[in-house]
Amino acid sequence: MLVMTEINSVGNSAVETVDSLIHARWIVPVEDSNSERILTHHSIAIIDGKIVDILDSELARKRYRATDVTELSEHILIPGLINAHTHAAMSLFRGMADDLTLKDWLSHHIWPAEEKWVNEQFVWDGSMLAFAEMLRGGTTCFSDMYFFPNIVGKAAQESGIRANISVPILDFPSAWAQNADEYIHKGIQLHDDYRNHPLINVNFGPHAPYTVSDQPLSRIQTLAEEMDGTIQIHLHETQDEVEDAKNATGKRPIQRLHDLGLLTPRLQAVHMTQVDDNDLALLRDSGSHVIHCPESNLKLASGFCPTAKLMEAGINVALGTDGAASNNDLDMFSEMRTAALLAKAVAGDASALPAAQALKMATLNGAKALGIDDHVGSLEVGKEADIVAVTTNSPECQPVYHVISQLVYACNSDKVTDVWIAGRRMLDNQHLTTLDESSILKAARDWADKIAQHD
Ligand SMILES: [Zn+2]
C-alpha cells in the first residue's frame, strides 16, 4: 500500500495517512548494535502490518494521520517477546505433578498421562490455553515441540499468534505417528501446508539425542538443508543424559550431533546445562544457537546453563519457558528475570547478563535462533509490527530511573496492556481480541476434572 499524501488544511506541510499510530512514553527497540537504546516520547507508524516510521511524537502528530491511534503515556513499548521453546498443549498438565526428579516426573507421571490423554482435542484446548496466557503476557511468537503439530498449526492460525512449529520426531510411537519415518513424513507434509503462511513456520524437532537414532537424525539434517529449515532438539539437559550417552556411545551427545553433521546455524540446542570447553568450542565454531530455559532447569534440578560464558564466546542464546508442566507458567517476564539472576549466581559476578541482554535474549536472540530475525525481534523500520506495551502506572513499577532495568527486574507480565502481531491488535487494554477466554478456561477446567478423576 502506498503512503497517501495530502495537503494539511492548516498549513502546507504534507500529512501522510498510515494504518496505525502508537504514541508512547518510551520505546526500547532492541537493536542489534545498541540494545540499550531508549527512545523517549516517540511514536511508531504502521502500514500493512509493517513499521514504516519511528519518530519523535511531536513530529509524528504533524506528519501522520491514522484511523487507529493509541496513546500510551505511561507505557514502554518493546518488541513482541519470543518464547523460543515450549510445549504449548502441556499447559493442561500444569501442576499435575510437581516437586519430583526429572526421571520420576517423566516416567511415572508425564509419559503415562500423555499416553492416556493426548489427542487432537487435548492439543487444541491446551494450545489455546497457552496462547491466551502467552498473548496476555506479551509473547507474540512461540516455538513449539509437541504431538499433533498439525492441530497446533490450526490453533495458531485461528488465534493469530506467530508460531514456529518444530515437528516432534522420535524413534517411538505416539498417538500421532508410529516411527521416525512417519513423524518425518508428516512433518514434511505440514511444512508444505504452511509454506506461504505469513505467521507460521514448520521445522524439525527431533526430541533428544537419547530418543532419536543416528539414521533419522542424519536424514533430518539433509532435509533441513534442502528445505532451508531449522532443527530444534533438547540437548545436554542433565548430567545423567551426558553420562548415559558416554556409556552407550563413547561420546558426549553434542559430539555425536557434530559427527552426524547437525551442528550448523540451523540448530537450536535447548537447555545445555552441561557445557565443557569442547562443547563450547563446538557451539561457537558451528554457529548453533542455545535456548536457555532457566525456570524449568531449576524446577527439575537439571543444572545451570552458563549463559554469560556462552554469550561472551559469541554464541547466540535465546530464552524459552519449556512446557507449563515443568515451569509452571509461560511467563517470559519472569523467565527474563530468572535468567538474569541465575546468570549472576552461576558466573559469581553481579554484572553478568545485564537487563538489556536479558531483554535481547527474549526478543532479538529468539528471532535469530528461529531464523526469523530479518522480519521480527526488534522494533525497526521495515520489520513487522510485533509490539508489546507495558504500563509503568502501578506501585511496583514506580519510580522509573532505568527503563530496561524496570522491565526486567520490576515489571511483571500482568503489566502488559496491549499487544500487536504484524500490526493486528491481539490484546486491547488487557482484553484478548481473537480468543474467547471464558470458553478456553472452561475447556481447561473440564480436562482437569476428567484427568483428576482417573489419576
Ligand atoms: Zn522441552
Instruction: Sketch the major β-sheet.
Output: 9 strands, mixed
The low-confidence runs, each spanning 5 or more residues with pLDDT under 50, are: 1-12
Structural class: alpha/beta
Q: Return the CATH topology of the largest domain.
A: TIM Barrel
Number of helices: 16
**Rounded average pLDDT:** 95
Bound molecules: zinc ion
CATH class of the largest domain: Alpha Beta
CATH architecture of the largest domain: Alpha-Beta Barrel
Superfamily at the CATH H level of the largest domain?
A: Metal-dependent hydrolases
Q: How much helical structure, as a percent, in the residues?
A: 25-40%
| Count of the separate structural domains | 2
- Based on Cα principal axes, name the global outline: globular
Roughly how many Å apart are the termini? 56 Å
How big a fraction of the residues is strand?
15-25%
Give a quick rundown of the structure.
With 455 residues, this protein is an alpha/beta fold.
Q: If you had to describe this structure to a student in words, what would you say it looks like?
A:
Helices cover 38% and strands 25% of the residues. It is α/β, with parallel strands linked by helices and 455 residues long. It folds into two domains: 4-79 and 383-422, Urease, subunit C, domain 1, CATH 2.30.40.10; 81-370, TIM Barrel, CATH 3.20.20.140. The strands form three sheets. Strands 1, 2, 3, 4, 5, 14, 15, 16 and 17 form a nine-stranded mixed beta sheet that branches. Strands 6-7-8-9 form a four-stranded parallel beta sheet, with helices on both faces. It is globular, with a radius of gyration of 22 Å.
